[in-house]
Each structure stands twice: as C-alpha cells, then as structure tokens.
Write a structure and sequence with these properties.
11 strands, 0% helix, 55% strand, single chain
Length: 115
C-alpha cells in the first residue's frame, strides 16, 4: 500500500489549495479514505472522509463549507479542495486508509497559511 500526498505550499489568508493523494497497492474502489492534519504541538485530527461506493462525505466542523473531498476512482486519487484558508489551517496534511484493521498513512504535505 502506498499513499502519496502532494499539492501543499504557502498561501495567503483567503487563498485556495488543492491537495492530492495518489494511492496504489490496494483495491481503490473498495476503500474509504480520510484526510487528516496535524499542526505543531497538536494532535492529528480527522477533517474529511469519503466512502468508497457511495462517495458519501463527512467533514469536521472546522472545515465544513470551506473544504471539499472528492475521489477519482479511475486515477486512484483523492483530492482535498481547500478554499477560504485561514492561518489556523496551517498543518501537515495526511491521507489515510484502513484495510483489514491496519492503518496506512502517506508522508504528508505541508500547508502554511500566512496572515
């Protein structure tokens, strides 16, 4: 299993970024995928999930209405569109799957929002 995040960077308050999570090594269509973030000195938090077949999405209150998770099963990729970014969104962002009780994480991509 391999998960590779990309798309992070430095952006000003109010700006947008789109993160990508490219997946391989498992049956992509069958697995729900989550985006997490971890800011310095804070616990890693779940911010968005997308289910497999139904593509049902869920969001943390902190990002609801600003972030959108989506998936392209043909490309084995999950996206996180982030709009109206705030300095408190600054964190390392990770995607994760759970398969057969085992969590698999990517290496993360850093998002920094300047005020």
């Amino acid at each position: 299993v391999q998960l590779v995040e990309s798309g992070g960077g430095l952006v000003q308050t109010g700006g947008s970024l789109r993160l990508s999570c490219a997946a391989s090594g498992f049956t992509f269509d069958d697995v729900a995928i989550g985006w997490y973030r971890q800011a310095p000195g804070k616990q890693r938090e779940l911010i968005a999930t997308i289910r497999s077949m139904s593509a049902t999405t869920n969001y943390a209150d902190s990002v609801k209405g600003r972030f959108t998770i989506s998936r392209d099963n043909a490309k084995h990729t999950v996206y996180l569109q982030m709009n109206s970014l705030k300095p408190e969104d600054t964190a390392n962002y990770y995607c994760k799957i759970n398969q057969w009780g085992v969590n698999y994480w990517g290496q993360g991509t850093q998002v920094t929002v300047s005020s």
